[in-house]
């Protein structure tokens, strides 16, 4: 329950977690609560239980955890339920009306008549129908004939489980999946729906939500930020004639409050949202669905409270005695390991609803082929072939801009970012040099600032690839999808429209193309460079690479035309690429999990990272070194580091990390419980910004 309390010279909103009969403070230092803000608690015991669990697991103060779970408007005192100003005729008003009064005041008469005829009306309705009704209202109040009060708004739509539309008849695999999860309604179970894009996962979600609604329960659906498209929301709205609340990061504070209230009041029977929606209030929760569960946007990895919405969804389902369904074409290795360990149940949709053959993957050795502007000859030939056959081509490169480096060939100068240990990226059409890590932005020099010789862009970004393709295929129209050209949702829609209509036939894109949208007429996918993912300091890089390749490949093709996927690499013999090619994602995952087991990386161990940053490198390392010196870990817990981050300087701050690792989760958390309060007391902690990241997914 929220209360307003005096705090120093301010008045703040607080949440009452417990009541106490006595206090250690003298009575005259205790202050009264000024105001109780909620008629009923906005966090029920189940919600509080989840937040308390998160606070313990992520070792973060409960206050900040609660604050992260609530919309900003509620944190500053907005009402938890909407009210509307409702006007009614009083008993005296009814009697006066029946006597035909007021006789000589037409405006007053009209308002009274309106309220009597409609048995009351909201202020909004009155404003709509009667100009200047408030003047009239004042006079009628004076006579005691009408009155107003604040009430909960009347539902405009009555919640109903009715479907608006019927779905297609399910395939055998879809039916099996719906039956398996359906049998678990009413109790906990974690299911993994493993199926490529277009295999009918969403259809399975819709059927399960239908069942949940039929039991008068509600559904919570979580999607990655970029996966929450108008199409997806549209599919739910099309199927169900029931109120839905949609929560995502682009909402204004007020919109978020309204959506939260819809969920809290139970008016919304389906709550659909991104990461933080895992905390949304959903009374009588019947199922949680997490779509694209492998997506890294479910992990909050900034700020103080760093959590995994996917993992919390599982915990929430457990506590709510409801099933949770994790859907993906490329489940996280952690998730696959949970299946092997028998904790999660796997359900497979082995093929696309509308296509028999999966696309064929082939590697192109970049060292053995002529390469022009990053595109090898075999890739160009394949593009020609597919374009001639009326297909569309998707070219994937996870690097926006024109070129990642600006180089002086005379003296070897490369344009550096002054704030980061990174190079500036060339943005040719904008005529700028930009840092993709801190956002620094400067003019594009034509001459080397060091020796005056001419400089040249080296390497490829999407802008340059687009230029190269314009030269190679001058008559074929292209679209580019990256953060430089797509700034609003409507830009994305426009690009999709141009591909769907066939107006554009080559699509060049970054990671952005791997999510949300399908390209049914794309028959060829070219992955320009697979190598960034193979040799990274982050042990998760290969997993992300394989997921990207499978996701990009999965966007392509429909019907009977077999799709083709070409992957350019300088390391065609790399075992992970080979296992991906010969055995698909499952084969890759098996090989990658084996590597992880040998190196004792998660999921075969548990990690927590203490990260910090400071204005100088020494301070960043000093704090972590002192923290390490304080630690008295048991034998089962290892500390690794501290080390500077792979890109130590970012936006002018120096970053470092200290890893805590253990095969025993309990031991790790007990150690953190004892150690962190000591770390907090360190003097050096004040000179840095630091945070704990439990189960980090990005290491640097
Ligand atoms: P996913 O969520 O796995 O990408 P969808 O559920 O969106 O897959 O299904 C892909 C396409 O196939 C959609 O157009 C959907 O309407 C259609 N579809 C799904 N299941 C069936 C089915 N059983 N019969 C016919 N079409 C289906
Ligand atoms: Zn130079
Ligand atoms: Zn920078």
Radius of gyration from CA coordinates: 30 Å
Strand content: 15-25%
What is the molecular shape? globular
Uncertain parts: 155-159
Query: What oligomeric state do the depicted chains represent?
Result: single chain
Beta strand count: 30
Main-sheet strand order equals: 9-10-8-11-12-7-13
Largest sheet: 7 strands, parallel
Specify the helix fraction band. 25-40%
Alpha-beta classification: alpha/beta
Question: Key features?
Answer:
7-stranded parallel beta sheet, binds zinc ion, 700 residues, alpha/beta, 34% helix, 20 helices, 22% strand
Write the layout of secondary structure elements.
Elements: E1 2-7, E2 10-15, E3 35-36, H1 45-57, H2 62-69, H3 72-75, E4 84-89, H4 91-98, H5 106-118, E5 121-122, H6 123-129, H7 133-142, E6 146-151, H8 172-182, E7 189-195, H9 201-214, E8 218-222, H10 230-239, E9 244-247, H11 253-264, E10 270-273, E11 285-291, H12 309-320, E12 323-328, H13 333-340, E13 345-349, E14 360-365, E15 371-372, E16 375-376, H14 377-388, E17 392-396, E18 405-408, E19 425-427, E20 432-434, E21 441-443, E22 455-458, H15 462-472, E23 478-481, H16 489-500, E24 506-509, E25 522-527, H17 541-554, E26 564-569, H18 575-599, E27 606-614, H19 617-630, E28 637-650, E29 653-662, H20 665-681, E30 689-694
Parallel strand pairs: 7-12, 7-13, 8-10, 8-11, 9-10, 11-12, 14-26, 17-24, 17-25, 23-24, 25-26
Antiparallel strand pairs: 1-2, 1-3, 4-5, 4-6, 15-16, 18-22, 19-20, 20-21, 27-29, 27-30, 28-29
Helix pairs in contact: 1-2, 1-12, 5-7, 8-9, 17-18
Bound molecules: adenosine-5'-diphosphate (ADP) and zinc ion (ZN) (2 copies).
The site of one zinc ion has 8 residues, from loops.
């Amino acid at each position: 329950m929220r209360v307003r309390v005096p705090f120093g010279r301010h008045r703040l909103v607080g949440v009452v977690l417990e009541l106490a009969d006595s206090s250690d403070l003298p009575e005259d230092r205790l202050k009264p609560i000024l105001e109780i803000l909620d008629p009923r608690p906005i966090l029920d015991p189940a919600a509080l239980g989840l937040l308390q669990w998160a606070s313990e697991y992520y070792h973060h103060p409960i206050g900040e955890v609660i604050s992260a779970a609530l919309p900003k408007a509620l944190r500053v005192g907005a009402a938890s339920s909407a009210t509307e100003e409702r006007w009614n005729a009083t008993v005296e008003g009814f009697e006066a009306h029946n006597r035909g009064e007021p006789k000589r005041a037409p405006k007053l008469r009209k308002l009274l008549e309106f309220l009597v005829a409609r048995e009351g009306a909201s202020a909004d309705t009155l404003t709509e129908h009667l100009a200047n009704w408030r003047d009239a209202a004042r006079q009628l109040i004076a006579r005691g004939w009408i009155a107003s009060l604040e009430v909960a708004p009347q539902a405009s739509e009555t919640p109903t489980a009715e479907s608006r539309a019927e779905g297609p008849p399910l395939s055998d695999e879809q039916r099996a999946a719906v039956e398996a999860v359906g049998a678990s309604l009413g109790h906990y179970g974690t299911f993994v729906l493993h199926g490529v894009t277009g295999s009918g996962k969403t259809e399975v979600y819709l059927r399960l939500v239908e069942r949940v609604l039929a039991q008068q329960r509600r559904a919570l659906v979580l999607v990655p930020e970029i996966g929450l498209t108008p199409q997806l929301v549209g599919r739910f709205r099309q199927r169900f004639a029931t109120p839905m609340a949609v929560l995502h990061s682009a909402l204004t504070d007020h919109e978020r409050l309204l959506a939260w209230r819809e969920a809290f009041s139970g008016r919304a029977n389906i709550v659909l949202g991104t990461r933080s929606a895992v905390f949304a209030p959903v009374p009588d929760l019947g199922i949680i669905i997490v779509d694209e569960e492998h997506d890294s946007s479910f992990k909050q990895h900034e700020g103080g409270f760093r959590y995994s919405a996917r993992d919390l969804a599982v915990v929430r389902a457990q506590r709510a005695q409801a099933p949770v369904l994790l859907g993906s074409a490329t489940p996280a290795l952690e998730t696959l390991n949970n299946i092997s360990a028998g904790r999660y149940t796997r359900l497979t949709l082995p093929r696309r609803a509308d296509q028999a053959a999966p696309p064929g993957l082939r590697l192109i050795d970049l060292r053995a082929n002529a390469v022009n502007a990053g595109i090898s000859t075999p890739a160009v030939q394949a593009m020609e072939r597919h374009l001639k056959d009326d297909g569309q081509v998707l070219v994937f490169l996870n690097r926006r801009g024109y070129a990642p480096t600006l180089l002086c060939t005379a003296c070897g100068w490369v344009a550096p970012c002054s704030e980061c240990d990174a190079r500036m990226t060339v943005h040719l059409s904008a005529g700028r040099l930009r840092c993709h890590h801190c956002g620094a932005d400067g003019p594009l020099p034509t001459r080397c600032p060091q020796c005056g010789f001419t400089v040249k862009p080296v390497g490829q970004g999407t802008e340059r690839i687009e230029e190269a393709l314009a030269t190679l295929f001058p008559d074929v129209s292209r679209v580019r999808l990256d953060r430089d050209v797509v700034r609003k949702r409507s830009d994305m829609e426009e690009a999709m429209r141009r591909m769907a209509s066939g107006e554009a036939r080559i699509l060049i894109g970054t990671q952005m193309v791997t999510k949300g949208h399908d390209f049914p007429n794309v028959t060829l996918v070219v992955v320009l460079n697979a190598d960034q993912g193979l040799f990274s300091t982050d042990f998760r890089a290969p997993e992300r690479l394989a997921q990207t390749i499978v996701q990009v490949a999965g966007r392509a093709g429909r019907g009977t035309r077999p799709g083709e996927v070409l992957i350019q690499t300088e390391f065609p013999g790399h075992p992970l690429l080979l296992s991906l090619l010969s055995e698909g994602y499952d084969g890759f995952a098996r090989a990658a999990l084996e590597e992880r087991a040998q190196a004792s990386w998660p999921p075969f161990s548990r990690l927590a990272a203490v990260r910090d940053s400071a204005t100088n490198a020494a301070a960043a390392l000093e704090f972590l070194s002192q923290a390490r010196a304080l630690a008295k870990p048991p034998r089962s817990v290892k500390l690794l580091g501290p080390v500077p981050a792979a890109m130590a300087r970012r936006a002018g701050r120096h970053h470092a990390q200290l890893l805590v690792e253990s095969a025993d989760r309990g031991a790790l958390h007990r150690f953190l419980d004892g150690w962190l309060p000591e770390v907090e007391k360190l003097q050096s902690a004040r000179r840095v910004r630091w945070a704990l990241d439990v189960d980090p997914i990005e290491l640097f």
